[in-house]
């Protein structure tokens, strides 16, 4: 009996997005960002939302984070409806200015833990130090954000998110503003961290190669308003075969799925 319960528990998705329509009101107009989008994310998935600019990827991520309310449909985390932000969902954004500049790197990483009252100051600082070590920045604990490169700031943002030990780590084009070499090294770093910690990741990108590299599952969204066009298994693609013939063929296939009119 217990065994059955355990099997059922592991089989149920961590996150369910069901028929989600998101709309904004601007100048007495209603802008529909997504239309009846549904998908499920399992524990330890690296789930990528991929689509052209304006298809509603960020809106979906913000809705999961609890910043944008559903116009229709719902979002369930561990079976519970999401109604607002919470420390169980942490977002890493693209912008380098997401770190308060007056706080040291260590205080920046500890900040979320203290603000959400997850732990007392000593424990927060200890967890922050561990998270910084995980991303290779222990030496920069006392530095300030302006003393770091763009890539290092993103590493700090990732450390801050991981220190929270969220149920789902949400990343909104986190490497898009970095140069190609730094982007690749952070993609590698993210995958290494995932190997080590097996967190659940929802990752937004408009770059097909990045989606194949980072994700084990990819949700393709059609242009504005975003609808689900397809869901692909990408587990066979990664750093080991990036740029290979199979990788490029899959890239082209995804490109066609995204940009050719649906039949
Ligand atoms: N705060 C807002 N107010 C009004 N409209 C918005 C707002 N945020 C997004 N939109 C609109 O919703 C649609 C989806 O935007 P969203 O940013 O989610 O797309 P995206 O796929 O993430 O795009 P990009 O890749 O360019 O960031 C767009 O038409 C956008 O103009």
Walk me through the structure.
- With 263 residues, the protein is of the alpha/beta class.
- The protein has a domain at 99-165.
- The protein contains 8 helices and 10 strands.
- It has helices at residues 2-11, 57-65, 105-115, 121-134, 150-163, 180-197, 208-214, 245-259; strands at residues 15-26, 29-41, 46-50, 72-77, 80-81, 89-92, 168-172, 201-205, 217-221, 228-233.
- The strands form 2 sheets. A 6-stranded mixed sheet has the order 6-7-8-3-9-10, sandwiched between helices.
- Strand 1 and strand 2 form a beta hairpin.
- Helix 3 crosses helix 4 and helix 4 (121-134) crosses helix 5 (150-163).
- The longest helix has 18 residues, at 180-197.
- It is globular.
- The chain starts with a helix and ends with a helix.
- 37% of the residues are buried.
- The model is unreliable at 1-9 (pLDDT under 50).
- Bound molecules: adenosine-5'-triphosphate.
- The site of adenosine-5'-triphosphate (ATP) has 14 residues, from strand 1, strand 2 and helix 2.
